[in-house]
Design goal:
Elements lengths: L13 H9 L1 H9 L6 H8 L3 H13 L3 E7 L5 E7 L3 E7 L2 E7 L5 H15 L1
Antiparallel strand pairs: 1-2, 3-4
Protein name: ArsR family transcriptional regulator
InterPro entries: WH-like_DNA-bd_sf, WH_DNA-bd_sf
């Protein structure tokens, strides 16, 4: 996937968030990702084909609503888990302009380091 995680500085576009939240499968994925899950686990829990699931995860990632958490396996390779990356999404209108605010959970230092590590892995 193109975008691995969202930092608190990310500002997803209003349209990206609306597109993701308008999709019933994306909403199902969001309900299931309160705890980190692999794509295989999500595909089973959400009853969505894995190829479709990856497209939904891309939509959610573009909207900074999910993040990827990679772990290195002792046998080699890595496992990617996906988790919801917001506490609250607020869409408001003021002076005929819509705006979006995404409240994110606070991250500990080790989680921020894991995000950086994950992004570095995507660059290699």
């Amino acid at each position: 996937m193109g975008r691995s995680s969202a930092s608190s500085a990310d500002s997803p576009s209003l349209q990206a968030i609306l597109d993701a939240l308008d999709d019933a499968d994306c909403r199902t994925v969001l309900r299931e990702t309160a705890q980190p899950m692999t794509a295989t686990e999500l595909s089973t829990r959400c009853d969505i084909a894995q190829s479709t699931l990856y497209r939904k995860l891309e939509l959610l990632s573009d909207a900074s609503l999910v993040r990827e958490r990679d772990t290195i396996n002792p046998q080699g390779g890595r496992t990617t888990r996906y988790e919801r990356d917001f506490d609250n999404v607020m869409i408001s209108i003021e002076s005929d302009d819509f705006s979006v605010t995404v409240d994110r959970p606070s991250r500990k230092a080790d989680e921020r380091l894991a995000d950086i590590w994950s992004q570095m892995g995507d660059e290699l």
